[in-house]
Design goal:
Blueprint (H helix, E strand, L loop, with lengths): L7 E4 L5 H12 L3 E6 L4 H9 L3 E6 L5 H14 L5 E4 L17 H29 L2 E6 L3 H4 L5 H21 L4 E8 L14 H10 L9 H11 L10 E4 L7
Parallel strand pairs: 1-2, 1-4, 2-3, 4-5, 5-6, 6-7
Amino acid sequence: MARLDGKVALVTGAAHGLGAVYAKALAAEGARLVVSDVVDCQPVVDAITATGGEAIAQICDVTDNDALKASVTGAEDAFGPIEILITNAALFVALRRRPFEEIDEEEWDRVMRINVRGTFQTIKAVVPSMRKCGRGKIINISSGTVLAGAPQFLHYVASKGAIMAMSRSLSRELGGDNICVNTIAPGLTESEGLADHPDYDEARAGSVSQRAFKRDMVPDDLTGTVLYLASPDSDFLTGQMINVDGGRSNY
């Protein structure tokens, strides 16, 4: 029996990159997936169903409450109440590194609206469904940039610091509902969006040199932590951030 047999999981920002990897890993452990993004998710759903899994695709903007409500209703109609949520939707690859004085207010607000408010709105929409289950696992995605204090990326780093703080506060609010709220902080990961990105060749070399494991970090390096936090193995763990970066930041 797989660890997540029959559990319903929603992954935002799952049309490609790390979100798609998370969704496929959950499905391989028996979860029934709701694959959500602002763009077409059907290729990820097709990959899951081709290997015998269950999944549906949903177009959803995490800053749109009506879209979120429809997403939760669709998930419940298809599979039942949602027990696992991964809030992966965020602005990252589209951003360019620059001194903080060159970040205008419009870009700052856009990052905060999607990365922070979008996570807040998604959790608020999904928690009532988890209460129907009598339990839940919320896995928020922060970033190792919070620990490293990455320069020239202030809006992104600030947004991911907010995710860590939000998780700690929510863990106390939702403990009485038997809902675990934890955070993963990935190091710089070789997802498809970074393959030809002009800002990351130098950052990539620096990250590898500072790691205990002297190699690139790949998406599959994160799936074990995702599955642990989604499974009953972590039922007494909440309010924590797990840093997965090959030993670059030892705190």
